[in-house]
User: What shape does this take?
Amino acid sequence: MVECRYCGEQISTESDDATDPDYLDHIAEEHIHDLSDIDEKKLRREWDGSVKEAKSPDYRFSAAQLGAATTIIVLFLGFFFVGYIM
Assistant: This one.
């Protein structure tokens, strides 16, 4: 078991080492924006690369999808209010 230094949660791991993959997965999933430089280096070693991708915002919708949704909402509200006024 390793105690998370960010939230205090006890993470069940195979070893008592803070470089255990289960612990690193926990801090990557739960505390990616709060990582110390040391933990970031541990993650880079574990993931063979950069943590910048994990820290970048995850946009679920593209600009085209947002534009289409906005257009539909505006048309719906327009027809609703025009029908309500008349």
